Amino acid sequence: MSTIEPHHQRGELLRRCDLIIWDEAPMANRAVLACVEECCRKVMRNQTPFGGKVVILLGDFRQTCPVIPRGRKADILNACISRCQFWEQFQIARLTAPIRNAKDPALASFVDAIGDGAGPSVDLSFLTRTTNAKDVINFVYGQNITNDPNACLRRCILAPTNTQVDLYNAAVLNLLTSPSRQYHAADSLEKHTQAAEVANTGSDADSPLPNPDAVLDYVRCRRPNGVPDYSLTVKVGGVYRLLRNFSIDQGLVKNARVTVVGTGSKLVTVRLLHDTQTPGTNTGDILLPRITFKERLQSGHTLCRRQFPLAPAYASTFHSCQGLTLDCVGIDLTQDVFTHGQLYTALSRIRQRSDAIVRLPTAEHSCTTNVTYKELLI
Amino acid sequence: MGASNLEENECKGENRDTLQFWTEFQSKISEDFIVATAGNSEEGCNEALKWLGLLLQGHGKGLEDYGLPEPLTRENEAEWELHRWLSQSGTLRQQVDVGVSVFNPEQHDIFLRVQQAVYNNEPLLMFIDGKAGRCKTFLVNTLCAWVRAEGRIALPTATSAFAAQLYPGGRTTHSTFGVCVLSMANSFHI
Questions:
Q1: Residue-range domains of chain A with CATH
Q2: Does B48 touch chain A (CB under 8 A)?
Q3: How confident is the model at residue A65 (pLDDT cuts 50, 70, 90)?
Q4: Sheet of A257-263: strands edge to edge?
Q5: What is the ipTM of this complex?
Q6: Looking at residues A120-125, what average pLDDT do you find?
Q7: Closest partner residue to B7 among A14, A35, A289, by Cβ?
Q8: A327 and A48 in contact (C-beta within 8 Å)?
């Protein structure tokens, strides 16, 4: 579990600290909470829960919760921090006064109702609706807005699945006329695990591992989650998000928005995009090298992909839009949401109804499905 | 800037004379850090080495792979954390005063409960439930500013680094508590 021992420097830091804050706690697996609890007890050298520390968790159980690959509802509920044995010892404090949505109280109460489990079918007729992707792209990125990376920072197209997001990103990136460069990744499969797997399954002739070459071919056209594209198009002036944490102090973190300034053969030069409302220090130009991403595939292989840690950021999934405040949103609901809190997370990004356009499968429909696991709400 | 230079060298695999390169250019490479440590070149170079070490760690390597000297760890983390906010206690106190004056009753109540627990060294476990846009960040920043102005240590953490960067001195929960992500890699993906 926790790698920190009481005699470590970090152990002393934790022992002497008076206040522990944990934001976005419901996004974490309950195993993490158990690990933090154990770590606190260990460094404090006593057996009170959390070592008797002041621990403040924050978050919103209405939003999307831990992702369990191919998990069912029961798996997701089981991974939630409110299923942790220490949960009952937490006092619950509520912040209820609306602040961000104050401009449009009707929208605020509508979104709140979705968060609290409205549906299963909810009527979106008071929002602008469309049936094709072009309208969505025009609404969010029309009028040459793509030429100004800073203006794109508060705009986003949201969709439930990565496949849809990739299509939108490619379409918006196509609107840019600036010079572009194509970077191909170096892919390989991790050697030793492959050998181990073969040894394990050697006796079991019914389930041989797929041919490694076939696997590599497959991941070239079908990107596994959590790694960059095999063939990455980088356009100068394009808006991208980082796929790795580099420095929290400088704001170079996973999902941070950057714009590309230069495309070299070994390095890509990017500049961090700042939200004008949150003053930050200007970090200047940052050089990004290629980085090896490792991802365990469904086939049992571990893919090592060496590629720039970048992905276009014009569209995003409902899961990774958490924490963004947006002025202009296109929400693709041609496929229904499939897990807890997705619709709420997407709709709660905006402040007034004119900020959003919704894409629905047919013009006759104005309804969509909402999925809320009421067991999660507190 | 120099560090990216060194990185470029690493990319090319020219690591044979990294040590020579470092001894020759260490003052140039560490310039940013020397400025940050008020002109102390020795401390600045040490900071630069630490930073390089972290950078290399991200690539699965270490300073020793390049024959570079290990940085000295003179100060400990707790002292450093205290030292970091000491010089700002005036502005922090101001931030608390401004924050408390604009709190709504809900925020004020939470603030007082936490304040009391920290003062009396009492255990307190609390979950703050707030929908998007309820100024949770503002409340947390005011709380941390108060704790730090008191000369105590506050550790703001978040599940994702994206959320952690909203807090001054924020870190991810995983790195703060040494949570082993690998052991949970199968059940934990964000």
A1: 9-89 (no CATH), 100-160+318-376 (3.40.50), 162-315 (no CATH)
A2: no
A3: confident
A4: A285-288, A268-272, A257-263, A239-242, A310-312
A5: 0.84
A6: 85
A7: A289
A8: no
Shortest distance between the Cα of B55 and any Cα of chain A, in A, equals 8
**List of chain A residues whose C-beta atoms are within 8 Å of the C-beta of residue B60:** 292
Helices (H), chain A: 9-16, 30-44, 73-79, 105-115, 133-141, 149-152, 162-175, 191-201, 212-221, 342-347
What 8-state DSSP symbol labels residue A98? Answer: -
Specify whether the CB–CB gap between A157 and A350 falls below 8 A. Answer: no
The answer, for A210 touching chain B at a CB cutoff of 8 Å, is no
What is the per-residue pLDDT across A84-97, written as a single tens digit (0 to 9) for each? 888 999 999 988 87
- The DSSP bridge pattern shows strands A17-23 and A54-59 to be parallel
Of the candidates B143, B157, B126, the one whose C-alpha atom is nearest the C-alpha of residue A14 is B157
Distance separating alpha carbons of residues A10 and A4, to the nearest angstrom: 7
Eight-class DSSP state of A52: G
Give the Cα separation of B54 and B58 in Å (integer).
Answer: 6
Question: CA A156 from chain center: how many Å?
Answer: 13
For residue B157, the cross-strand partners are: A22, B171
The answer to whether residue B23 scores a pLDDT higher than 60 is yes
* Contact with chain B for residue A217, Cβ under 8 A: no
Each residue of A293-304: pLDDT tens digit?
Answer: 998 888 888 899
Instruction: Determine contact: A79 vs chain B, CB below 8 A.
Output: yes
Q: How far is A362 from chain B (nearest CA, A)?
A: 30
Residue A299: its H or E element = none
Q: Which residue in the block uniquely carries the two structure tokens 């976005």?
A: A24
Mean of pLDDT over chain A: 85
Alpha-carbon distance of A293 to A279, in angstroms, equals 32
Give the residue-averaged pLDDT of A266-283. Answer: 73
Task: Name, in order, each residue with C-beta under 8 angstroms of A253's C-beta and a sequence gap of 6 or more.
Answer: A242, A245, A246, A247, B160, B161, B162, B164, B165
Rounded Cα–Cα distance for residues A241 and A262 (Å):
15
**Beta-carbon contacts of residue A355 (< 8 Å; ≥ 6 apart):** A326, A327, A328, A329
Residue A282 CA to residue A252 CA, distance in Å, equals 12
Q: Is A3 helix (H, G, I), strand (E, B) or coil?
A: coil
Give the residue ranges of DSSP H helices in chain B. 2-12, 18-29, 31-36, 41-57, 77-86, 89-102, 105-119, 136-149, 161-164, 173-176
Spatial neighbors of A365 by CB under 8 A, at least 6 apart, are none
| Residue whose entry in the numeric block shows the structure tokens 């991941």 | A219
CB atoms within 10 A of CB A184: 12
Q: Which residues of B touch A327 (CB under 8 A)?
A: none
Q: State the burial class of residue B5 (Cβ atoms within 10 Å of its Cβ: 0-12, 13-18, 19+).
A: middle
Return the higher-pLDDT residue of A312 and B16: A312
CB A371 within 8 A of CB A339: yes
- Mean pLDDT (chain B, rounded): 80
Q: Among partner residues B77, B113, B158, which is closest to A23 by beta-carbon distance?
A: B158
